[in-house]
Specification:
The chain has 94 residues and is mostly helical. It has 3 helices and 2 strands. The chain has helices at residues 2-10, 49-57, 80-92, and strands spanning 36-38, 44-46. Strands 1-2 form a two-stranded antiparallel ribbon. A hairpin with a 5-residue loop joins strand 1 and strand 2 (44-46). Helix 1 crosses helix 3 (80-92). It is globular.
């Protein structure tokens, strides 16, 4: 989780995603993992590993309700190891 926190800083995630539950440009990481997420198209999903990976690689495929589709893709910019570390960090912020 500590590596994921560092990556969130170095990859710029914290510019839009908070870790304390306050609303930012993007959803806060705090309490995200395992929660139900509603999308602008009316569908919903549980924020699990696959949801987070999809959000990192194809962020505008499913946009969280209440947010604008402004997140860039990080495809080719994060390794699977880095992505898994970020997921562990988000899990730790329950």
């Amino acid at each position: 989780a500590e590596q994921g926190k560092t990556l969130s800083q170095t990859k710029g995630c914290i510019a839009c995603h908070t870790s304390d539950g306050t609303k930012g440009i993007g959803p806060s990481y705090k309490g995200l993992y395992g929660s139900e997420v509603a999308f602008t198209d009316g569908s919903k999903a549980i924020a699990d590993d696959n949801y987070i990976k999809d959000s990192i690689l194809t962020p505008n495929a499913k946009v969280t309700k209440g947010y604008s589709p402004v997140m860039p893709t990080f495809e080719g910019q994060v390794t699977m190891t880095e992505m898994n570390a970020i997921i562990e960090y988000i899990k730790a912020l329950k």
